[in-house]
Amino acid sequence: MTHEKPRVGAPVGPFTFPMVGHTKEYVIGEAKDRWTMLFVYRGRHCPRCKRFLNKLNTVLADWTAHMDVVVASADTADKAAADQQEHGWAFDLCYGMTEDQMRALGLYVSAPLSEAETENNFAEPGAFAMRPDGTLMLVDISNGPVARPDLDELLDGMIFNIKNDRPVRGTL
Fold first, then answer.
1. 3-state SS, residue 162
2. Which range marks the domain in which residue 149 is found?
3. pLDDT of 60-83, one tens digit each?
4. pTM of the full predicted structure?
């Protein structure tokens, strides 16, 4: 079975996600004034995700000085809101990611191992950088919770890409 990769240099979506604590929805892939970094996490059941997102939250101001940051999962509104409240996350937190959206982003999708984990299929981790025109610049996906980008290194590279208007790589 092959896994479809998202096409770098191509428009993303658009995908619409409901946001914790907002009546408006977050749209990925539409033109914006700035770059956007989307981090996808497995959901409330994943302790590794929480560690990664807690680290992101501590350096969020460094990120938002250069781009918008949004985090999404397939969790329900209640689960996402519970995580945000418990951890005090300040980034835009979205929920309700569909399997069609997961697959369109090229994410790996997993079934829960038990109802104690979660009750629905969920996306494995991913990071997606989009230019202001909504095209995909950078992709980092994993098929499990243990492989994550280093946030400092990723931010440093993104700042370099933004300041130098670097071209999309990996198009051959």
1. helix
2. 15-158
3. 999 999 999 999 999 999 999 999
4. 0.94
